[in-house]
């Protein structure tokens, strides 16, 4: 089976690194740091819109510095969710093929996979930044694998991940331990309350 993983909130604990990177940047700029909730509410918009919302000005010249800080923070403190390496290793051992599809920039995805060591279990990784949506990216991915007629499933922690799977006719497993909530993930076809439960959830589909 082809298992399409989301990255942030499913494999990687992104919130702590985003919060730390933003705080370091704003402290460096001598700008007051807003409450954690405000940072996290703006984070899904992407780095540049988030910075512009927090700074209240054009942040194009600040983006490069933020990305440098983010790189350092990932290397210093970035962590996977507990149980992710064991789950991925077992899935590969069972003969599944693992890919990662993320809304984050490709350089970020590459850094996280390499820093955490899980790149060794991932066949390929993709960023949706060059696509109109994650659903479009997954559709392109499925078309590329279609010749091999491999059944596929999406594992993610947001309603967008579940919708992207269903728009492409795929089942979805909700990472309930991630950054979504029970209401937004209720339409999933399977549920994992820890990374270790992903394997069991696959067997219920």
Q: SSE string, helix = H, strand = E?
A: EHHHHHEHEHEHEEH
What is the C-level CATH assignment of the largest domain? Answer: Alpha Beta
The stretches of 5 or more residues where confidence is low (pLDDT under 50) are none
The largest sheet, given as strand count, sense and whether it forms a barrel, is: 6 strands, parallel
Taking all Cα atoms into account, the compactness measure Rg is 17 Å
Mean pLDDT: 93
CATH fold naming of the largest domain: Rossmann fold
CATH superfamily of the largest domain: HAD superfamily/HAD-like
In CATH, the architecture of the largest domain is 3-Layer(aba) Sandwich
| Beta-strand segment tally | 6
Strand order, main sheet: write it out.
3-2-1-4-5-6
Which structural class fits the helix and strand makeup?
Answer: alpha/beta
Taken from the alpha-carbon principal axes, the silhouette is globular
* Beta-strand fraction estimate: 5-15%
Distance between the first and last residues' Cα: 12 Å
Number of helices: 9
As a percent range, the share of helical residues equals 40-55%
What is the count of distinct domains? 2
Description:
With 205 residues, the chain is of the alpha/beta class. It has two domains: 2-13 and 79-203, HAD superfamily/HAD-like (Rossmann fold), CATH 3.40.50.1000; 14-77. The protein is 47% helix and 14% strand. It is built from nine helices and six strands, in the order βαααααβαβαβαββα. Strands 3-2-1-4-5-6 form a six-stranded parallel β-sheet, with helices on both faces. α1 (14-28) packs across α4 and α3 (47-55) packs across α4. It is globular and about 55 Å long.
């Amino acid at each position: 089976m082809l298992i399409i993983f989301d990255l942030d909130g499913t494999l990687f604990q992104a919130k702590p690194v985003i919060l730390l990177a933003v705080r370091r940047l704003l402290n460096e700029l001598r700008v007051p740091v807003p409450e954690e909730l405000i940072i996290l509410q703006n984070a899904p918009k992407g780095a540049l819109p988030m910075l512009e919302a927090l700074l209240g000005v054009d942040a194009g010249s600040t983006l490069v510095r933020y990305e440098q800080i983010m790189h350092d923070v990932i290397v210093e403190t970035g962590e996977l969710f507990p149980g992710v390496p064991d789950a991925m290793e077992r899935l590969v051992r069972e003969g599944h093929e693992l890919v990662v599809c993320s809304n984050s920039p490709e350089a970020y995805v590459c850094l996280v996979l390499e820093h955490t060591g899980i790149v060794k279990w991932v066949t390929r990784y993709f960023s949706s930044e060059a696509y109109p949506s994650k659903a479009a990216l997954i559709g392109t991915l499925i078309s590329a694998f279609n010749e091999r007629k491999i059944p596929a499933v999406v594992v993610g922690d947001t309603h967008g991940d579940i919708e992207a799977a269903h728009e492409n006719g795929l089942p979805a497993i909700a990472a309930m331990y991630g950054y979504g909530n029970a209401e937004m993930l209720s339409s999933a076809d399977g549920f994992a309350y820890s990374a270790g439960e992903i394997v069991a959830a696959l067997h219920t589909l």
